[in-house]
Amino acid sequence: MLMALVAALLPGAERKLILHADDLGFTHAANLASFEMLEKGHVSSASVMMPCPWAAEAAAWARKNTDKDLGVHITLTSEWKTLRWGPLAPRDKVPGLLDPDGYLWAGVKDVATRATPREVEIEVRAQIELAKKLGIRFTHLDTHMGTLYARPDYFEVLAKLGQEYGVPILRIKPSEDLRRDAPLPVIEYLLNNEERFRKEGWFRLDSLLPDPTLGTPDPAQRKARYHQALRNLKPGVHMLILHPAVLADETRAATGTAVQRDLDYRIFSDPETVKLIRDLGIQLVGWKDVAGAGK
């Protein structure tokens, strides 16, 4: 702990963390947990899945809490078996995004092998426009399940619309972790365009922290792994994605991760975790703080 405190005081050693609540709008249970955590400062950012059934509730909350850091969680997949959603764009405009039942595809690979960049742009724009219409003053654009990192031309859509709407996008330094998760053509694209992005003033995260919990539903293990990830945080601006939701029949019925989502909510609402972040000198920041944007 002493070494962490000393390191935090060294010049250029600031550690900033976007502690992010994913999947607002997914369920009422996810909304309840994320609203509380945003209001109490236990997370510093969140983003809304506009095609999902509880997006309207998230938007109503956003209109009353315009100081909070909310993005649009661009959603091109519908991964659960019993809770499904479709595109917001007219279906005849985005046939490559539709599975045989008329929902969005369940997997990223299904999207990447069927949807054209034009179809992706039409749907991404529809989601952003609905967020605007519902009064969400969004601060950034990110991507559900990393779908917009599946192909370089998909990422170009994200980049184009980020510039058009004047907000930063989820752009990550091509680290070893990203190399493990993203396809090689995307990594090469990011590397080849690094200088252009820098000159154009695009914000870039130093890292998107990989899930340190390995999906464990064991409370003690999950908490210990999150705490260790916080202790290991290096200087720079990083992002850690949580999936908080209060434990409810709704989440149990829709997913196989209800317990893990409840633990994300409880662990990062725990005074011990709040104190650890403070004692480590980690600054919780939002996209507005590090990239200065908001629509």
Quick summary:
The protein is of the alpha/beta class. It has 14 helices and seven strands. Strands 1, 2, 3, 4, 5, 6 and 7 form a seven-stranded parallel β-sheet that branches.
Describe the model.
The protein is an alpha/beta fold and 295 residues long. It has a single domain (2-290), classed as Glycoside hydrolase/deacetylase (TIM Barrel, Alpha-Beta Barrel), CATH 3.20.20. The protein has 14 helices and seven strands. It has helices at 2-9, 28-40, 55-64, 108-112, 117-133, 152-165, 176-181, 184-192, 194-199, 219-231, 249-254, 258-269, 271-279, 287-291, and strands at 15-24, 45-48, 70-74, 141-143, 207-208, 236-242, 283-284. Strands 1, 2, 3, 4, 5, 6 and 7 form a seven-stranded parallel sheet that branches. Strand 2 (45-48), helix 3 and strand 3 (70-74) form a beta-alpha-beta unit. Helix 2 runs parallel beside helix 12. Residues 1-9 have low confidence and may be disordered.
SSE order and pairing:
Blueprint (H helix, E strand, L loop, with lengths): L1 H8 L5 E10 L3 H13 L4 E4 L6 H10 L5 E5 L33 H5 L4 H17 L7 E3 L8 H14 L10 H6 L2 H9 L1 H6 L7 E2 L10 H13 L4 E7 L6 H6 L3 H12 L1 H9 L3 E2 L2 H5 L4
Parallel strand pairs: 1-2, 1-6, 1-7, 2-3, 3-4, 5-6
Helix pairs in contact: 2-12, 5-6
